[in-house]
Specification:
Blueprint (H helix, E strand, L loop, with lengths): L1 H5 L35 E4 L3 H9 L8 E7 L9 E7 L2 E8 L7 E5 L12 E8 L2 E8 L13 E2 L4 H5 L5 H4 L14 E11 L16 H12 L6 H10 L3 E4 L8 H11 L5 H10 L4 E7 L7 E2 L4 H15 L1 E2 L3 E4 H5 L9 E3 L3 E5 L13 H13 L1 H4 L15
Antiparallel strand pairs: 1-2, 2-5, 3-4, 3-6, 6-7, 8-13, 9-11, 9-12, 9-13, 9-16, 10-11, 14-15
Length: 403
Amino acid sequence: LAAAARRGPGGGASKGSWPTGTLLTHDTPVLPSYCSKDGPPHIRCGSTFSDQLANVLSGGAASASSMAVHVEWGDADVAGPFTLMVRCRGIELARAEVAAMHQALVLEIEQSDASPPLQPGECFVFELSWPSGSRHLHVLAPLAPSCLAHGSLVSVALTGAELANTKLNAEQLMAPRFPMRFSSVVRGFGIEIETLTALGPGRLGVDATGAVNPGAGAALDALVERCVESSPPHSLAIARRCQSWVVGEDNAIVPALERAAQLAAEAAYPAGSDHAKRARQLLLNRGTHKTEFKSPAPPTELSFGDGAADEIRCMLRLVSRVGVAAPSIHQTHAIAAGKMEPEGSACDSGCAIHVHINVRNVDARGKVLSAREIVHVVLAWVRFDLVTSRFARAWYWREPSCA
């Protein structure tokens, strides 16, 4: 309906949308929309987001603020006229038209055309339409250096002297930085945190037959024991729960690109310092374990109604003192192939945080969801996809496993 409205009364091209208050009836023509798998024509962007990202990470300059989108006609045989338009936040920014196929149809726009400026994760929507069909392409705004936030991705382990001078208190470890309000919905969930941690002896008593016993587990337990004398009973109980997290290996974790590791290390510590060098080694998987921290399974899983927020904060702050790195960008398809590949290019992250919501396990907290209720959740995710993407770092917008 929206596509039909933008073409104006009678199906002819219009410079704007329908007047406010116009009612679309059952007689209003509706343009079918096809997946690109149905064949040409296709809308192509001259510079994809991952191409721009690859350029920045290889030491190149930041991308220009403009982008050009064109139509590839291929072997399609459909009748025109054809209209290529772009909109942002539902507002049309520009359009171009041709009468028939195989004529040049291009739109070039500046990022400044969007007012207010696009925020991270927002995109331009390009639409190619003709009397019998349409195509759509969502394009992220040109990459800005400010999108590449490399801070808070690495923390080197405390040295013996630093540890001796540090007084650990569980209550301080779980103290929130900002005021928080929790949902009243009781629901159990689990967290998996993929990281690179420093080598070391693993937990005592853990059967490591056929599996890696990362040193981070023993180091974490030792830090919890240091909290015993200085922590109130309630806080200490939550810190003790951190010892029930599984500390294992995940071979899917991979090191960061050299340039990404350098940027992350320099964002955390002064350039050239011993800490910066150690941080870089962590990020590049030199002298490390590929470590995954897993919260307990049902029936003792995390729940915000049972202190999960405090436990997660405590766990993360303990892990940061153990020495941990979260490799950001492992590779882009463009870099891996040695050339730019606009079609299908993406950005692969080195690690991730996974959250598993318990909706079908009868042993977990919360009501078991029906199939219909689960479909509602999926549809809500699709609806708010562009909203949730704004909470992710720039490279996750095109991470294949997170799309």
